Hints:
The protein is built from 15 helices and five strands. The protein is mostly helical and 399 residues long. Strands 1-2-3 form a three-stranded antiparallel sheet. A two-stranded antiparallel ribbon has the order 4-5. The protein is globular and about 65 Å long. 36% of the residues are buried. The model is unreliable at 17-57 and 59-68 (pLDDT under 50).
Amino acid sequence: MSPSLLSFLLILPAASALAFAPVQTAMRRSVVGPQRAAVAPAISLLSQHTRWNKLVMQETAEAGAVSEELCVEDEAIEECTLVKWDAGELKVPMSWVNTVKLGFLFFSWFFLNVMYNITNKRCQNAFPMPWTMTVVSLFVGIPWVMFLWASGIRKPPKLGMDGIKTLLPIGAAHALGHAGAVIALGAGAVSFAQTVKAAEPVFTCVLSYFVLGTVFKWQVYSSLLPIIVGVSLASLKELSFTWKALYGAVTSNIAFASRAVLSKKTMDKPVGENMGAPNLYGVLTIMAFLLSLPFALYYEGPGFLPAFKESASKVGSFWLIKQMALDGFYYYAYNEVAFIALNQVSPITHSIANTIKRVCIILATVLVFGNKLTPLGAIGSSIAILGTFLYSVAKAKFK
């Protein structure tokens, strides 16, 4: 098993476990209280009814076992016992534990996102079929979410025809946005694609005005200026500039901005049961796969086998299949972890995390692929990424 796949298998279950930790803690608290209350009156019956003796002892043992859980949180005490021995125990504030959990989630999100970009670029360098990569990366996550629903780990969504009709345009925007991003990654440097994708807020503002009639305050619009200037500078002297990469990234921006605007316009009320953020993303992934498949078959279907044979002769079929599978794993996993992490923080923290994530992707891919950034390109990328942060802050503050 490759180190990358092992990292994924370790991170995703751990991240999912962290997401459910508060629920488990609450359940422990609700169980411990009633059991402790029930033990005292039961003990008083020991001398009267021998047959109750074993039952009471069993209840007492169960209560004791529950109360010895490592982390205890109630109205008076918020602490976690890290180590316990006969002579004492080591406790830390529960706030520290929650901070470590959130830090691990953000690390997992950044790591998986960086690995997705690197793996996708490697695949497309060896197998330049962007529509095929789009479909594969969407498909790989479907068995995973199906397993969660079938096993009962996550409640399956319940959607009627009205809900499907509501989500279908959003799923189409998701499919087009992902395809545009994959095309941009394959056609140029990852750093250039990420810089252009930083301009998504510009398209969000424009579409919000024309579709929703939303007018933001001047501070929000002024924060778009450094984004436009930064992307323009980065494109001007980008060594790996191609029009295809630019068109792909811009198409992705328009599609993802449309997805956000359509979501706000049509999803003012729940579209079904059990449709939390992770399940919503799972449903949109399935829709995006089904909508992308015909385009992949049309554009790349006839040339798929010859291209695969040619690529496999250079890098090996096993390597190519493994990298394509990892690409799909990383794509679904980083989005899944992002939903878990970002639902626990404020919009400002979200914007800071997004900014750091984009910087991590650019730096990591420059190191891995050796794509040189010109001084002007580096300055432009920095200005554009800073602009996205300022936009997020302005939008959160000046509503």
